[in-house]
What we know:
Layout: H1 2-24, H2 29-42, H3 48-54, H4 59-72, E1 77-79, H5 80-88, H6 97-107, E2 114-116, H7 117-129, H8 132-143, E3 150-152, H9 153-167, H10 179-191, E4 198-200, H11 201-210, H12 212-224
Antiparallel strand pairs: 1-2, 3-4
Helix pairs in contact: 1-4, 1-5, 2-4, 5-6, 6-8, 6-9, 8-11, 9-10, 11-12
Amino acid sequence: MAGCTSRCRQGVLKLIQSLQRLVSGTLTKDKTDDELEMTMVCHRPEGLDQLEAQTNFSKPELQILYRGFKNECPSGVVNEETFKHIYAQFFPHGDASMYAHYLFNAFDTTNNGSIKFKDFVVGLSTLLRGTLREKLEWTFHLYDINRDGYINREEMTEIVRAIYDMMGKYTYPALKGDVPQQHVDAFFQKMDKNKDGVVTLEEFVIACQEDETMMRSMQLFENVM
């Protein structure tokens, strides 16, 4: 079991590296013609046409991603423990476990405790190549921990603390206990237009689109993702 978990972690890390190459444009035809041909024959994900329609990835891109995912994680799923181990490697000076938990739940749209290839690639498509509205909606659902359609103060406090924990003491050496709460207060001051104590999706989207500072703050999420 330990060997399988280790192998799966390595596989998803390779998958992330492939995604970085896809986004940067360095995953080009001259480097992957032979791989693509083999991928199309041996590693064709089920419902390829449907996945292409649901994402902003091409068929060749989906096949390459699927090959890495399936070869290194034959079960076809990533559980939360494996996801946390992977994520922790990107933030060695902090504790990323809680933020990874929230991020895992955002990908696990069926709430069954595992992320399948379809879940992973649909979410990544939104984050990497979606419209601004789609990215904001995805981020809202990340913050809406209990999935009731609203962001309350408790949820936002948990998210902010998770981000601070993840970035670590070397990033925030003089962090005081009330700083996360100050960020939550500022968030609700800008977002909660009707002052009812919760932020709706529309309030969140409109406030982000109207505020350049809030839009720049979205880059924090992109960086930690």
